[in-house]
Amino acid sequence: MSVQISPSILSADFARLADEAAAVAPAADWLHVDVMDNHFVPNLTLGLPVVEALLKHVAIPVDCHLMITDPDRWAPGYAEAGAGNVTIHAEAVQAPVRTLRAIRAAGARAGLAVNPGTPVEPYADLLPEVDMLLLMTVEPGFGGQGFLDLVLAKLRRARAMIAARGGQIWLQVDGGVSAATIERCAEAGADVFVAGSAVYGASDPAEAVRALRAQAERATAHASWPAVLPGLSAPGW
Ligand code: DX5
Ligand code: ZN
After folding, report:
1. pLDDT bucket at 1, cuts 50 / 70 / 90
2. Dihedral (CA of 83, 85, 90, 91) sign
3. Domain count, the chain
4. Are the beta carbons of 223 and 186 closer than 8 angstroms?
């Protein structure tokens, strides 16, 4: 199971987005873009026109995290624009199967996110429609918040759920991920790590990505969660 790091540009300089993306591109796997509409979350960031512009300048795949009330309406557009992954929130989506399929049909990976207080078990039957599960480790809306340890138990359950389903679904954490918390996340089962302030608050963002990756790789090497080998399926959930 390989570790992936997805720096969040929420903590970058919004007037210099292309440069800020370039600063992490040599080290990061993804560029995490937080789309907020001031309805689903109490903050407003950017939308499809900015993502379309950014896509022309970014050398690594773009990971769009849609914190918006109407993902059914907007999510396929981000995939059509060229995002490599589009994540929608379970709390907001009206027709998850249709919308997740539309994201995939447009050529992107489909992500499903749950907030800290939302259980993951009700979404077990949706796993075949999903390429990545995102467990929020803060209440969404702002960068720089404290990591919520209470999500770690859910992370372990989500990892077991994925293993039981036999899938190769990625498990992402987002919120408060830093040098102080990334090992706990990796040990609990996360394999894709979003980090905003821990990367863009560092004097050398690319070096911060490399350091986070090394920490997560070390923690994953002796993790107790069950890895699923490619091509093998575990017993049904
Ligand atoms: C919060 C966003 C995060 C945010 C994380 O709602 O979804 O992606 O940028 O920022 P940090 O890593 O600073 O908690
Ligand atoms: Zn995010």
Report:
1. low
2. negative
3. 1
4. yes
Give residue ranges with CB within 6 A of ligand 1.
8, 10-11, 32, 34, 65, 138, 140-145, 174-177, 194-198
pLDDT tens, 146-171?
999 999 999 999 999 999 987 799 99
- pLDDT of 226 reads 59
233 domain-assigned: no
Domain annotation covers residue 236:
no
Q: How far apart are CA 157 and CA 119, in angstroms?
A: 10
Residue nearest to atom 10 of ligand 1 (CA): 143
Q: Per 3-state DSSP, what percentage of the chain is helix, strand, and coil (rounded to 5)?
A: 40, 20, 40
Name the residue with the closest Cα to ligand 1, atom 6: 140
To test the pocket of ligand 1, the residue of 142, 151, 185 to mutate (highest count of ligand atoms within 8 Å of its CB) is 142
Exactly one of 29, 63, 131, 174 is catalytic; name it. 174
Give me the mean pLDDT over the 41-48 stretch. 98
In a domain, 142, yes or no: yes
CA of 220 relative to ligand 2 center, distance in Å: 22
**Which CATH number goes with the domain that contains 155?**
3.20.20.70
- In the set 29, 34, 37, 63, the catalytic residue is 34
104: phi then psi, degrees, rounded to nearest 5: -65, -40
Q: Which domain holds residue 159?
A: 4-228
In a domain, 234, yes or no: no
Instruction: pLDDT band for 56, please (50, 70, 90 cuts).
Output: very high
Q: Is the pLDDT of residue 233 over 60?
A: no
